[in-house]
Write a structure and sequence with these properties.
Helix content is 42%, strand content 15%. The chain is an alpha+beta fold.
């Protein structure tokens, strides 16, 4: 895990020392162990790198890294879990070390951009190709690792974080309506937007070429939605479903242990992290593992307290266990820094921030998270509620105009007794994507002018509605069963734009790499035909895959999600009564940093 940034230009301009220094400083937490630069001999390109040492701790793993012939130079953020296997494909390459970075470089030399079809992991990287006088940039299929781009009059920039690009004077920082509206709609900024017109996210599963005198050429090389839509029966279909599931999950957890430093496991009482710990104890000696659990003093001795169950799970698998309890005072003392390191506004990530802090204080640079299990195995209420809503509303065959009238007449009344979202059921319940907004939305579209400048809100909604890429992505899943459509939406919306992005910035705030064995493109492809079948595997099916079953009280425990009492923490510091859910928190962080 690292921080990367770079610039390419084929004219006279070259970034000065002040800009370079500011960018490197902005990535310090991402890579506290080393920093280096590479400058093209003719100053056509600049590559900047901050290193967090996890694979090949020697100087042989340092970046930027250049091939012995000087033709290729790479900077890389992430982990390639199958790099040891792939090294054997680069016969004759003069490896200097054992890093996965060097493996990418060697395979790119042999296969070019086709290398992307072989990489298993989370990544964002850039390669300067001297022979082609061009830059090649790529981001992993799920979008686990972030990468942002900016085209200015003085060249093309990219970086691991938005805040690094804020250090570039030429970047257009005027408000991007879709980013601002999207944050209040979803609780996070939807890709490819940011809050700034001049900065975009490179979409997940995309790469780009930038050649002399041309505009960037984008190409999609992988898609979560397409992997589900195009999944075909395979030879593995003859293997019993449970065996397929167990083999795939054990394979993913095992490869995610590729590391030259110790690895911890974030453990709640939920099935996802418990299953990961159980499988981890199958593939690694229990004494080599440690589980870390976060609790909150406000939840102690209530159903929301998971610490006792987590301790039981760790003991069950013979794994060392540590618990840290967070208080309101802990939150207050960290709130300023938490918002400061938040690269883009988000209502989530507090739990990841504190458990990553705990991991670093315990001496870990790498930890496993259970994120991703709900998207694969139908753990959210959306898998039940969205098909129910769509099926019900379609029966009435009502126009959207009627739904809009119904909402206008019932919104105030329903808002007094329950969520105002229910007023939109007839307006937003006819399609899966609209019902998904109704289920996941923080503020609904008709509420945005109340929390944003009305012109900004309307322009943002229009831009989001007209996003051709999103329309194409939705069309890819139209033929899927409703369950698989929800899985695709959860994976490409909530998981990508919020959970994965939050794991990145929150982990990096403490120089901790958070790995996600249940968010793995190879795992998805192995299970895609099952997920889109009439009988997709459930969370309970996932949870029985460890060789030693989870304790019965964990298997039978009602799903509660991992809650953080931020609404209660804010209650005494806000002038008005906190709104339902995390709406007050959304307003608070937005005003604190992005318009404060």
């Amino acid at each position: 895990m690292c921080g990367i940034a770079g610039w390419v230009n084929f004219g006279e301009y070259f970034p000065n020392e002040k800009v370079q220094r500011s960018i490197l400083d902005s990535m310090k937490e991402r890579g506290p162990d080393d920093e280096r630069r590479w400058v093209h001999p003719e100053k056509k390109a600049l590559l900047l790198h901050r290193r967090l040492t996890i694979r090949d701790l020697s100087a042989n793993g340092a970046q930027p890294m250049t091939t012995s012939d000087g033709k290729l130079t790479i900077i890389f953020n992430g982990e390639i879990y199958n790099s040891d296997e792939l090294r054997s494909w680069a016969l004759g390459y003069p490896f200097k070390g054992t890093s996965d970075t060097e493996c990418i470089l060697a395979l790119y030399q042999k296969f070019g951009p086709q290398v992307l079809t072989y990489l298993r992991g989370m990544y964002a990287f850039a390669i300067w190709d001297e022979e082609k006088s061009s830059l090649f940039v790529a981001r992993d299929p799920y979008g686990i690792k972030p990468l942002y781009i900016a085209q200015t009059r003085n060249g093309f920039w990219f970086a691991s974080q938005v805040k690094s690009l804020l250090e570039v004077p030429e970047v257009d920082l005027s408000p991007e309506p879709a980013g601002h509206a999207g944050f209040f709609l979803w609780g996070s900024v939807p890709e490819p937007y940011t809050l700034y017109k001049g900065i975009r996210s490179l979409r997940a599963g995309h790469c780009l070429w930038l050649k002399d005198g041309t505009e960037p050429q984008f190409h999609q090389f992988a898609s979560v939605s397409k992997s589900l839509a195009e999944a075909l029966p395979s030879a593995e279909d003859d293997v019993p479903i449970f065996a397929r599931l167990r083999n795939a999950l054990h394979d993913s957890v095992k490869v995610h242990f590729a590391s030259d430093v110790p690895v911890a496991v974030f453990l709640s009482a939920g099935l996802d992290s418990s299953t990961i710990l159980g499988i981890a104890s199958d593939v690694m000696p229990s004494e080599a593992l440690k589980a870390l659990t976060l609790g909150f003093d406000m939840y102690q001795n209530t159903p929301g307290d998971e610490t006792a169950e987590a301790a039981l799970i760790a003991e069950h698998y013979g794994v060392a266990h540590q618990t840290t309890i967070i208080s309101k005072e802990d939150f207050s003392s960290e709130a300023t820094r938490l918002i400061q390191v938040m690269d883009q506004p988000t209502i989530d990530g507090i739990n990841s921030y504190f458990v990553a802090k705990m991991a670093r204080e315990a001496g870990f640079k790498v930890a496993f998270s259970g994120v991703g299990g709900d998207e694969l195995f139908g753990g959210y209420g959306s898998f039940r509620q969205i098909p129910q809503a769509v099926t019900l509303v379609r029966r009435f065959n009502l126009s959207r105009r009627f739904g809009r009238l119904f909402r206008r007449y019932t919104e105030r009344l329903l808002g007094q007794i329950t969520s105002p979202k229910y007023a939109g059921i007839l307006e937003y319940g006819n399609t899966v994507e609209d019902a998904y907004l109704l289920r996941r939305g923080l503020f609904m579209p008709w509420e945005l002018p109340q929390v944003l400048d009305s012109d900004l809100a309307l322009a943002g909604l229009e831009a989001l509605d007209n996003d051709a890429f999103v329309a194409k992505e939705l069309s890819d899943i139209k033929t899927l069963p409703l369950y698989a459509q929800v899985s695709a939406l959860e994976s490409t919306r909530y998981l990508r734009n919020q959970l994965l992005r939050d794991a990145d910035w929150a982990g990096m705030a403490h120089s901790v790499e958070i790995r996600t064995p249940l968010v793995d493109y190879s795992l998805l492809k192995q299970l895609a035909s099952l997920i889109r079948s009439n009988h997709p595997p459930s969370k309970l099916a996932m949870a029985i895959t460890p060789k030693r079953a989870l304790p019965p009280q964990i298997m039978n425990r009602k799903k509660s999600g991992f809650a953080v009492p931020v609404r209660d923490w804010l209650a005494s510091s806000l002038p008005e009564k906190p709104e339902r859910g995390l709406r007050s928190w959304a307003k608070f962080i937005y005003k604190s940093k992005w318009i404060g």
